[in-house]
Design goal:
Blueprint lengths: L1 H13 L5 H17 L1 H12 L4 H27 L2 E3 L9 E8 L2 E5 L7 H12 L3 E5 L5 H14 L5 E3 L4 H7 L6 E5 L2 H12 L5 E4 L4 E5 L5 H12 L10 E7 L3 H15 L15 H16 L3 E4 L17 E4 L16 E7 L2 H9 L6 E5 L3 H10 L4 E4 L20 E2 L4 H7 L1 E8 L15 H10 L1
Parallel strand pairs: 3-4, 3-6, 4-5, 6-7, 8-9, 8-13, 9-12, 11-12, 13-14
Antiparallel strand pairs: 1-2, 2-16, 7-15, 10-11
Length: about 450
């Protein structure tokens, strides 16, 4: 890995600020590669999961990336422009400007839940900004990691883009490399270790983490619409999404009605679970066991487990397809209300007033996403102004991440920094400030020895 890093550093020194034409050509190569290999990408990701809906892969790991690349290519020339900044009166006719420079070599550590998309999306931003990049994909999706390495190796030399595969020990060593910027996507727990390793090199980091993203349903919002949009976000990738709705806050007198509507909609979306090509498996036996442990812990502590598919509840788990479940009567001491769920389990939490709902969310770590279902402007404004979250969607779920003109990132325990679109370009660029002195200027008035002139100037400046 150190050899690759040194090779990329040497290439960066030889070409420290690639032209717009070259960056655009890089992005074009990437788009063509993804389009040509869409079927193989979907098939390979499915093999890693045991089964992963190919439609979901085409949506999230292929189409989303193509859209992101098109957006970057359409706006890159504008992003790269030298930005003029105002000059204070006393310094005129000098000029100020910002020039966005590549940082150098970017390290990308990507997760298993969207193994292709979350390796390539940061790469789009890094290349747009003119950087070189090294990628360490997850060891839990080895086939996709190998495919990513092969496909990128076919279109880029190693001194521009390199993929390093291996187990967790390789990822740990990768995080200690002296990158010019590092982006990690994964759990909050591992993110702390990555930040600690990066700190030893003073490497700036972007951490895309997770947490428990709440969904609030207002008392008079149509339950059917809310249920459809909540479940479409929750059950994408079988809940293994960092911004999936983690729990639902519903009016106390509507908990039962909410559970019934969610059940009805779920069975409409998925007639069956285990033999359904549209429904994705849990990534590993370990994660499958963890989700079952969350259910049993909640049950033992008094929660009510609503089996949406009771006829499939006892079906063999060898395919790791977990039927969706609702959980009511939850309490704060239950693990399901403390850990990020990352699976098809959905707790329903009652609230009596909007103040209660806001307080419930505010008492917990800042979420990566916040979802509000309400047509009441006052409710939406209060949630927008009073609840701190990485991002927010009103009357929908997940859709804010698809907007390339919006930054994506967390706050506090859910992440540091953001990327996507121009914000990704800025994350991987250094804003180089430049002051240009004019030929005619009063700079000599500030030279020593100081006298009456400097007193006049200080009086004018203060």
């Amino acid at each position: 890995m150190q050899t690759i890093l040194e090779k990329q550093r040497a290439a960066f020194r030889a070409e420290p600020n690639p032209s717009y034409e070259l960056r655009d050509e890089w992005l074009g190569r990437l788009a063509t590669m993804i389009s040509k290999n869409a079927d193989e990408i979907a098939e390979t990701v499915s093999e890693d999961f045991g089964h992963r809906s190919k439609v979901e892969t085409r949506l999230a790991d292929v189409a989303a990336l193509i859209t992101e690349i098109k957006h970057a290519r359409a706006h890159l020339k504008k992003w790269m422009r030298v930005e003029k900044r105002p000059v204070a009166l006393q310094f005129k006719p000098a000029k100020n400007e910002i020039r966005y420079m590549p940082k150098g070599v970017v390290g990308i550590i990507s997760p298993w839940n969207y193994p292709f998309q979350l390796a390539i999306s940061p790469l789009i931003a890094a290349l747009s900004a003119g950087n070189r990049a090294m990628i360490k994909p997850s060891e839990l999706t080895p086939r996709t990691s190998a495919l990513t390495k092969r496909l990128l190796g076919e279109i880029f030399d190693e001194d521009l883009v390199a993929v390093v595969t291996g187990d967790a020990s390789v990822a740990q060593e990768f995080s200690t490399l002296n990158f010019d910027h590092m982006l990690f996507t994964g759990s909050t727990k591992v993110g702390r270790f990555v930040m600690e390793a990066a700190a030893k090199n003073l490497t700036p980091v972007t951490l895309e983490l997770g947490g428990k993203s709440p969904t609030i349903i207002d008392h008079d919002y149509p339950l059917k619409t809310a249920a459809e949009r909540i479940l479409s976000g929750k059950l994408l990738n079988s809940g293994q999404t960092c911004i999936a709705p983690d729990y639902v806050l519903a009016p106390k007198d509507q908990i039962e009605a909410t559970a019934k509507e969610l059940t009805k909609v779920c069975r409409k979306f998925y007639k069956t679970i285990h033999d359904n090509d549209d429904y994705t498996a849990i990534i590993s036996e370990q994660h499958f066991a963890r989700l079952n442990a969350l259910v049993e812990d909640a049950r033992e502590k008094g929660a009510n487990i609503i089996e949406i598919y009771p006829e499939e509840a006892k079906t063999s788990s060898n395919v790791r397809k977990m039927p969706p479940k609702l959980v009511t009567n939850v309490t704060p001491d239950m693990a399901i209300m403390q850990e990020e769920i990352f699976g098809p389990l959905l707790p329903l939490v009652p609230y009596e007033s909007l103040d209660d709902a806001i307080e419930f969310v505010g008492d917990r770590a800042h979420p990566l996403a916040l979802y509000v279902f309400s047509d009441n402007k006052t409710v939406v404004e209060r949630m927008s102004n009073e609840v701190l979250a990485g991002g927010m969607a009103v009357n929908d779920t997940l859709m804010h991440i698809t907007q390339n003109d919006l930054p994506f990132g967390g706050v506090g325990d859910s992440g540091i920094g953001a990327y996507h679109g121009r914000d990704g370009f800025l994350t991987f660029s250094h804003a180089k400030a430049t002051f240009r002195q004019s030929k005619i200027n009063g700079r000599s008035l500030l030279f020593p020895p100081y006298g009456k002139n400097i007193e006049r100037i200080l009086g004018f400046m203060s």
